[in-house]
Design a protein that fits this description.
220 residues; mainly alpha; two-stranded antiparallel ribbon; two-stranded parallel ribbon
């Protein structure tokens, strides 16, 4: 099936020519593939009970997909287990945005289902993204994948965060998860990740994320 993506703004010259070292690292890619295979194995084990829980909680699809911007602004379709009611996008205008800047968050978002709250607290809703990692659209560790609406309002500084692949986790997830509600703070964390990147640093962020998820720090 061929996917047709909306057109994103013109990519700045700095992104057209520059690449971050992490995007060409064979070791990082090998870790991504290994981690994705393990993650997808877990998805296979839990997809049936999760699917049953989602369907019993209300009508709608099991999976949720959305167009996000990846490396150099290239659009791709991200996958998650659905955590909101089926017509969540149409209801977005009725929900107050508690975040600052080019992101949307509400700690008590009424569109989130009962099962969805559990999936988000445990980060199980993110597991289908291991498919995005396996096919090379994402990495285990990277920057937060922005929406097309966000990128349409980017300033030059914001575009720098697209010099690496988006990640299932990253500085924003390991350090604060959902407690970070300022877009500029997320940008700062993403740029900090780029400046400190190494294989060892990736592994440390993965471990920090696992501990944060287990302790439910910063979870919605």
């Amino acid at each position: 099936m061929t996917s047709h993506f909306p057109v994103i703004p013109t990519i700045p010259h700095c992104l057209a020519n520059g690449v971050h070292a992490s995007t060409t690292s064979r070791t990082k890619r090998s870790i991504d593939i290994l981690g994705a295979l393990v993650g997808l194995g877990i998805v296979l084990l839990m997809v049936v009970p999760v699917a049953i829980a989602i369907r019993r909680d209300g009508p709608g699809p099991i999976f949720y997909s959305q167009i996000r911007c990846g490396l150099k602004g290239k659009p791709f379709r991200i996958w998650k287990f659905r955590t909101m009611v089926a017509d969540a996008e149409h209801l977005k205008a009725t929900v107050q945005n508690q975040a600052q800047g080019l992101i949307f968050k509400n700690e008590a978002d009424p569109r989130i289902t009962r099962v969805g709250k559990f999936l988000r607290r445990t980060s199980l809703d993110e597991f289908p993204q291991f498919w995005n990692v396996l096919i090379g659209e994402m990495s285990l560790v990277g920057t937060r994948p922005p929406t097309l609406d966000e990128v349409a309002h980017y300033q030059p500084r914001h575009w720098r965060r697209l010099q690496v692949k988006p990640g299932i986790t990253g500085e924003w997830q390991a350090r604060g998860r959902s407690s970070i509600q300022d877009f500029e703070a997320i940008v700062a964390l993403d740029l900090h990740y780029q400046s400190r990147w190494s294989i060892a640093y990736d592994l440390s962020l993965i471990m920090t994320t696992i501990f944060s998820v287990l302790q439910r720090k910063g979870a919605c």
